[in-house]
Please model this.
Amino acid sequence: MRLIVGLGNPGSQYARTRHNVGFMVVDRLAARHDLSGRRVKFHAGVLEGRIHGQRCVLMQPTTYMNRSGLAVREAVGFYQLDPQRMLVIVDDTALPCGTIRLRAGGSAGGHNGLSDIECVLNTSNYPRLRIGVDPPGPVPQADYVLRRFTPAQLEQVEPALEHACDAIECWLVDDIERVMSRYNAEP
Model:
């Protein structure tokens, strides 16, 4: 059993914003594998199914980003999952737009969603997939991530979403170190 968590903020006003790129990846992965029947469970929208033979739960917390840990803690507890069997997908302002970075663990790096998850699970030892959204420049970071992608950024994000789905599919069936060496290249 694997848990794939895309982080974002609920509500149409946040749809397709930089902060919701985790939601975008989960939506794309679900569409790729014809997963439907979304239910509300664990303070999240949840889809269950199989991807490449692996039983998976795809989750989009319905809490705001900085409270994502609530949903993750409930799901991890319910399924009695080791956090290593969970993958969290987030935006990253330190990476160029269109870049993806898979890590087996590490720090939250200032990301409020990851910080909350680490706080409630009492560990930072879980895989995460970061999607680059570019640095904010002179715009305050909170304002920047809650805005929609520019047309130029969308051209870079679209292939990154596909690349992220490829990496997730590979993570489901292969060793994370091999997946990292294969997918952590520049776009």
